[in-house]
Write a structure and sequence with these properties.
Radius of gyration: 35 Å
Distance between the termini: 31 Å
Structural class: mainly beta
Largest sheet: 31 strands, antiparallel
Oligomer: single chain
Shape: globular
Helix content: under 10%
Amino acid sequence: MRHRLLAGAAVIALLALAGAARAQDAPVPSTPGADGLTPGSVYIEADAAGRDGDVITAEGAGSDRVLARFRNATLRAGAISYDLRQGIATADRQVEFTDPEGNVVFASHLELDSDLRAGVAVDFATRFRNGANLMAATAVRRSVNVNELNYAIFTPCPICDDEGNARQPSVSIQAEKVVQNEELRAILYRNAVFRVGGVPVFYLPFFAHPDPTVERASGFLVPIPSYDEGRGLSLEVPYLRVVSPSEDWLISPQLNTDVAPLLNLQWRRRFADGTVVARGGYTYERNFGDFDLDGDGDRESNVKFGDRTSRSYILSHGRFDPQGPWRWGFTVEQVSDKTLFDRYDVRDPYQDNGLYYGDQRRLISQIYVERQTARSYISVAAFSIQSLRLDPAFADTDFRDPQGFKVFENEGQLPLAAPLIEARWEPDGPVFGGRLRLRGSAVSLARDDYVGGPVLRPEIIPAGPTLGLPGIDSRRVSGQAEWRRTLISASGVRWEPFIDVRADLYSVDDLPPMLGLEEEAISRGRATAGLDISYPLFRQVAPGADLILEPTAQLSASTTSDLDPRIPVEDSQTLELDESSLFRTDRFPGHDLYEGGARLTLGARATLRWDQGRQASLFIGRSYRADEEPAFLTPVPDAPTQLYDPFGLAAQSSDWVVQGSFSPSDRIRGWGHATIDASGEIRRAEAAVDGRWGRRNLATVSYILDQSNPVPGPLNRNYEFVQLSGQQFVYGNWGVTASGIADLERDIITRSEVGLLFDDDCFRFEIGYRRDNTRVRPTGPSEGIYVRLNLATFGGTGY
């Protein structure tokens, strides 16, 4: 009961002696607070106010209540009195007090001394600003920091429905005595009974949890139960130890019935200018999964295999941003077993925490430093990669090595980047009426093992065996200058002339020795001039609806491209043509590949908007070049003697780019993107639709397709997936939830969940069946029962 009741005896006495039913007193002139009152002032409304001896009173007539505002707090009560001699304030009849933090106290009778150190409340109830409720038959304020409640109930759930009628809270704790210690910021219970839907389910003679206003405090978090065929029944019991406001530890052992426990630890520390998070795990156990122990070719499911050994992982990152333009950071991500995350169901192992990101099933360790100002930027970084992917040649098979393990991607073929430098700079003012931007980059890449396509160009890939060949090392330094100016004619046409020049210097060694190539130094340059033209058109097609047409064209001419076959393709292996990349001078994301010659790019976007933010849009575009570019062709992985165009840019006309989005209501939205080749075949496509109905029912459907590789085989990277997730409430707060991913290329369900759901906005419980059959799961399919629990105020399993 912080800032309780009255601002003190002197203020109430002044108000009463003035005999005012509505009064405002400001004894010390100062700046008004958020409530418009200066410090020490009180605003009071009452039907009557008076004094009888030493007793000051203010009272409302009938159902009216006295209103008092002070210290950014508000008090309402049928009657308020203050005894000048004893220093005791009393409020009766529908007492309601709201403190500056938004917490609300209710009572039928409330007493408090003038020092706000002791008090008594009858029929006490308080609602915290986060929606939690604490109620008691009587409440006694023992001191400034300690409140004692008798026969009390605490619940994080609403106790009234939308119409204001009383409702049974989903989760509550009932206790004989509850002590709220504001100094410790904790609530302690004696003889606590836990109730779910009003039904007692658990009893503890003593229980404690943090005050609802506490963001974090030491103690056990919600346990995480699960089941897996390999581990058996599992229970993760997280314990949070708060060392200081800027540091904590999370100790979370995973106890398993069939294998040794896995100890998970996490340390977090916030410094004055940065944060460090270190997360790791350890166990001493044999491997387990699907192994052919007797050599008959039949897999024996979920058996222990090999000798016991230490198995561990570390996932840590830090970022420091001191005052000034410089900042730096790091990530350290390593795991002893390539299947440890899968077998022990480690949560969220693949995260984006640094300057550069490792993709799914690849871990990245890096250190970097950045400097950024309004006109310049530079970054220097170094990183290495650990791969947990299966070897693409055996990803769709059950091929095992002699030890019984599936074959993983060769990490010796992944580069070590040290250093990788990116920089740019712009002058303060315009140059020749336009914007000038200078860019520079440098990188050194080193590999241990040989890798062919798509890194090596078809011309220098050896025709014979490549086993034992060294990995190709390369170094590159690039400089680029771009000038662009924007002009808008009186008719609204937007003209943007531009000039772009670039120079690259390469040093490449360890090329295939049978080709007679040694360390090679290669230099090249490119110059481009062009013009972007756009003409936005707007028309109102109906009341409250308008149509926007945005035709765009780009005409550019470059020097002839110099795509030396000795230059490895490191940073231009992937390209996604879309509305933004189609009009770039350099469509490839890196430096190794670039376009030359004359090019014309055309596109148009149509957007229909109506009814306060509802809209639909469609973009169609394509690029044309003067000559074909055979250097963009890549060997087919399963037929190296054949070439194909993975980017849609090798021919004189590029793929069509079709992109659109729609949101016909605030409950439905969707988007789609596709590239279509000259024959009308879809090369790549993505689409997603989100829908909501009712208050909490929702569903998402997404589709992704890549069929750019024309030749089937084990190395074919084509894929086609459909993903579905949603929840539907059937009766009250009860519903069902389901999610799944279907691999249409392989005709299997790779991952699926179906479960029963209870959710009333403060208590969410899910129980269901889960199956994981992803191709990257080397230990075979995993299936079992899952349980998820989230409690408002108490936390949840998603910590």
